[in-house]
């Protein structure tokens, strides 16, 4: 039996840096965590739907209909496709059960909810306007500007200008102290489930990796919200899963 996994990821204008998107990092980190062999194919934003459609991957009902990450898995001449980081995580857990991502653990689900809704739901207006200049090749940057302007009803520059960044960071710091740090303290660390990493750690780590490539000062500010250093310890502990970024 022979198999090959291909991860479809977004390009970075700095090829040596490689992966930048928190969404594609979730899939990449899960592959790294599982120790699965894979190759990377970079797909620019405007090419995502044409490319995945050509593979026969059905789109979601809402815009954007096709997104990255996506993976293909070839086994004995049959190729399967999965799109969306959550679906990919479930697929990889089935493909290789150990080490387990612990997807059904209540704490793992809780961490995802906190990070996605209570943190990213707040600081998205701070982060998104910084993405094109920091990370994207020209064609991707143009697409990002055009589609986000349509989504927000204003340009990214206008979005950032009218955003009270300090107020949003203050809210985020409280969330970190009240919701994330207690979970790490309860487990004893360095991970959310104690001594073994899970999808919760990869999920948060994917956003920390994004902060780092957008602006290292943003990562440092976020980590500093935990004065006891639990988040910093977790970030250091997940580094092996975030080393492979560009191939």
TrEMBL record:
Pfam families: GST_C_7 (PF22041), GST_N_2 (PF13409). It comes from the Eukaryota. InterPro entries: Glutathione-S-Trfase_C_sf, Glutathione_S-Trfase_N, GST_UstS-like_C, Thioredoxin-like_sf. Residues 20-95 form the GST N-terminal domain. Residues 111-236 form the Glutathione S-transferase UstS-like C-terminal domain. This is Uncharacterized protein. It comes from Planoprotostelium fungivorum.
């Amino acid at each position: 039996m022979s198999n090959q996994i291909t991860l479809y990821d977004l390009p970075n204008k700095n090829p040596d840096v490689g992966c930048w998107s928190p969404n594609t990092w979730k899939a990449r980190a899960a592959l790294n965590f599982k120790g699965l062999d894979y190759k990377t194919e970079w797909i620019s934003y405007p090419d995502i739907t044409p490319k995945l459609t050509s593979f026969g991957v059905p789109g979601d009902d809402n815009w954007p209909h096709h997104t990255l990450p996506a993976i293909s898995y070839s086994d004995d001449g049959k190729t399967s496709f999965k799109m969306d980081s959550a679906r990919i995580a479930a697929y990889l857990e089935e493909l290789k059960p150990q080490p387990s991502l612990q997807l059904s653990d209540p704490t793992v689900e809780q961490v995802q909810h906190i990070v996605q809704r209570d943190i990213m739901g707040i600081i998205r207006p701070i982060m998104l306007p910084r993405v094109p200049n920091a990370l994207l090749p020209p064609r991707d940057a143009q697409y990002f500007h055009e589609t986000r302007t349509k989504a927000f009803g204003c340009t990214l520059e206008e979005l950032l200008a009218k955003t009270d960044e300090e107020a949003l960071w203050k809210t985020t710091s409280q969330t970190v102290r009240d919701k994330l740090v207690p979970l790490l303290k309860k487990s004893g660390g360095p991970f959310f489930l104690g001594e073994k990493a899970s999808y919760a750690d990869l999920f948060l780590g994917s956003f920390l990796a994004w902060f780092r490539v957008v602006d290292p000062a943003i990562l440092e500010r976020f980590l500093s919200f935990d004065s006891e250093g639990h988040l910093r310890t977790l970030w250091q502990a997940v580094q092996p899963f975030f080393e492979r970024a560009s191939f």
